[in-house]
Amino acid sequence: MHGMWKDMFVITLPILEKILRPVIVYFFLVIMLRLAGKRELVQLNPFDLVVLLTLSNTVQNAIIGDDNSVSGGILGATSLLAVNYLTVRFLYKHKNLDQLVEGNADVLIEGGKLRPEHLKKELITTAQLEAAARKQGFGSLSEVDQCILEPGGTLTFIGKKPDTDLLRHKELLDRIDKLKDELALLRGNRPPSVA
After folding, report:
1. How many of the other CB atoms lie within 10 Å of CB of 44?
2. Are residues 14 and 66 located together in one domain of the fold?
3. Long-range pairs of 131-140 with CB within 8 A, sequence gap ≥ 24
């Protein structure tokens, strides 16, 4: 029984190594995902999903080394969470560095017109953009005035606003309908005419 507890809780690698391994892998993955583009973060196709799912398995041995103990796993996980917390805090206080790490927003649709060169740069097809627009309640891209790919990978859609002539026309029709209702009400309350 003693051997089982030893295998579970005795860390076989030096503590500093157990801390440094996940930190190095963390920064490597942050840099590689940044270089891969914003699309990798949200707009996943089946190939991107397979890569992200196998990525954790690929770097697992680099993070844990030859140590499979529970204590080693907890120490590695704590190191990852701590470095993430410190990185996010640091970037929050240093906006210029945060912008360098996160990148800039990219406008994919401007004034209702697709910007194919931006779609190509971000490796987003028109079909993927249409699907994302439908998820946000737009029937088609013709209803979209602007689409922005945010630094975190989120697509923001802004709908077209109706022009002023259309708004005036609708307002006039509403007023006419209201007048019709008032006339009908007045006619219904009037005493019958004397012949």
Report:
1. 15
2. yes
3. 132/43, 132/157, 133/157
pLDDT digits (tens, 9 = 90+) for 84-134: 999 989 988 988 888 877 778 899 999 999 999 999 988 888 998 999 999
Q: How far apart are CA 154 and CA 152, in angstroms?
A: 6
Residue 94 and residue 6 share a domain = yes
Alpha-carbon gap, residue 149 to 41, rounded angstroms = 11
Structure tokens belonging to residue 66: 């030859």
Can you tell me the distance from the alpha carbon of 8 to that of 96, in angstroms, rounded to the nearest whole number?
A: 44
The rounded radius of gyration (Å) of the Cα atoms in the chain is 30
Looking at the structure, tell me whether residues 69 and 130 fall in a common domain: no
| pTM score, whole prediction | 0.61
Distance between CA 195 and CA 184 in Å, rounded?
22
13 in the same domain as 61: yes
Nearest C-alpha neighbor of 125 from the set 155, 161, 160: 155
Give the residue carrying structure tokens 């439908």: 134
d(CA 108, CA 115): 5
pLDDT per position as a tens digit, 135-178: 999 999 999 999 999 887 788 999 988 777 778 888 999 999 99
- Do both 77 and 114 map to the same domain? no
